[in-house]
């Protein structure tokens, strides 16, 4: 049995010239800009054109290109090796949503390799209609066009997976120890869990992302506690607003300012990206760090993203094997529930849509906080 594991990620420009077409692909995606097709095509191009100079400046600060593809390829290689150690004949492919390699090329590569089965594995722990949902739709169209008609298993979300939480807590634990050692004794430290933001209307329409981010934070804090490390005070916040509409908050930048006012140091932990990219390397490592220094923050530290951390890759391999065992669309949540695809492919979305926003809403919807997978 030859298993193709298709890793989904967002993709990023590989040169300054690629920035505008990459942004055009992003802003004309119906999952991102929710309006009728003709209007979306016009407005999406306009927004891409307006955003391009800012985005080009961002990428210029990290060598003119996104690091996302090489880092995702390294994750693919490491995951393939981890699956081989478990005895699985699997090959890992990468399908990016907005820049090369696109799903079309990957679907052809999967067919040419002669796969018998496909596992779709999003490198987004939390499900959003704008990320995993969009990639799955894109893949299905690409697979149809490539004549790829194979048994396919989708992994929907893995926000509370204990393996993911443990691996993340181990990385956080090391960063916490380093930050505490670097600070003068008695300096208070606040942990900022920073996730990519989302326009508020998308969350109000039932997207489960924000709720799942809160669940990831809870799972990581439990895992940290399990390691015997006392977590400092923490906040969940959202970065990378790119459109003028209202986005979910609190804003990471506002939290850095608040910490400066409160005279506490911050340790920023990315919670919705599993590899470094422009927003961790520029927004977190340069812009907010400089802001903190300007405002007299007692200290600014950052937890590295998982990238190909061995504990994280082992966790991904276990997730992949569990999904393959189940053989059906899978949420790695509360005992591997299956996705009935009622709403955007994720049952949590449907529950959350009924309940409204926030963690309390999730509890009201009867969604357990503890992962049992
Ligand atoms: C309305 C616009 C956007 C939504 C919604 C959005 C959701 C979203 N994005 C990520 C993860 C990443 N986004 C990245 C870049 C990026 N995202 C947007 C816009 C939206 N994202 C833009 C315009 C850009 C380009 C960069 C810029 O102009 O500042 C990236 C990575 C990039 C890289 O290094 O190349 C990631 C990763 C998530 C998880 C998410 C929703 C949950
Ligand atoms: Fe984004
Ligand atoms: Fe799910």
TrEMBL record:
Gene for this chain: hemH
Name the record gives this protein: Ferrochelatase
Subcellular location: Cytoplasm
Signal sequence coordinates: none
Sequence similarity: Belongs to the ferrochelatase family.
Keyword Ribosomal protein: no
Pathway: Porphyrin-containing compound metabolism; protoheme biosynthesis; protoheme from protoporphyrin-IX: step 1/1
Known role: Catalyzes the ferrous insertion into protoporphyrin IX.
Xref: InterPro entries: Ferrochelatase, Ferrochelatase_AS, Ferrochelatase_C, Ferrochelatase_N
One of the GO BP terms on file: heme biosynthetic process
Catalytic activity of the protein: heme b + 2 H(+) = protoporphyrin IX + Fe(2+); Fe-coproporphyrin III + 2 H(+) = coproporphyrin III + Fe(2+)
């Amino acid at each position: 049995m030859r298993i193709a594991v298709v890793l989904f990620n967002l993709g990023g420009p590989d040169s300054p010239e690629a920035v505008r077409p990459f942004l055009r692909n992003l802003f004309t995606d119906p999952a991102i800009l929710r309006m009728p097709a003709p209007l979306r095509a016009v407005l999406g191009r306009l927004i891409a054109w307006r955003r391009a100079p800012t985005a080009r400046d961002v990428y210029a600060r990290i060598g003119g290109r996104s690091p996302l593809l090489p880092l995702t390829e390294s994750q693919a290689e490491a995951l393939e090796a981890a699956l081989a150690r478990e005895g699985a004949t699997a090959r890992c492919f990468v399908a990016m949503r907005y820049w090369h390699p696109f799903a079309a090329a990957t679907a052809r590569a999967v067919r040419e390799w002669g796969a018998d089965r496909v596992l779709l594995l999003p490198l987004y722990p939390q499900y959003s209609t704008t990320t995993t949902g969009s990639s799955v739709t894109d893949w299905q169209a690409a697979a149809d066009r490539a004549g790829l008609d194979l048994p396919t298993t989708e992994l929907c979300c893995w926000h509370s997976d204990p393996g993911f939480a443990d691996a993340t807590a181990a990385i956080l634990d090391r960063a916490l120890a380093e930050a505490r050692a670097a600070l003068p004794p008695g300096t208070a430290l606040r942990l900022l869990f920073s996730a990519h933001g989302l326009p508020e209307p998308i969350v109000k329409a039932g997207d489960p992302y924000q709720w799942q981010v809160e669940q990831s934070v809870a799972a990581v804090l439990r895992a940290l506690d399990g390691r015997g490390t006392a977590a400092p005070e923490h906040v969940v916040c959202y970065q990378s607003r790119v459109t003028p509409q209202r986005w979910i908050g609190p804003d990471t930048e506002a939290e850095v300012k608040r910490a400066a006012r409160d005279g506490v140091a911050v340790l920023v932990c990315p919670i919705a990206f599993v590899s470094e990219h422009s927003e961790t390397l520029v927004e977190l490592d340069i812009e907010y760090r400089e802001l903190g220094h300007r405002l007299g923050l007692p200290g600014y530290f950052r937890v590295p993203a998982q990238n190909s951390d061995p504990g994280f890759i082992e966790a991904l391999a276990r997730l992949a094997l569990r999904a393959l065992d189940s053989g059906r669309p899978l949420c790695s949540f509360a005992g591997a529930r299956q996705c009935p695809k009622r709403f955007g492919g994720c049952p949590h979305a449907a529950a959350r849509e009924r309940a409204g926003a926030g963690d309390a809403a999730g509890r009201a919807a009867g969604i357990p906080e503890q992962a049992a997978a």
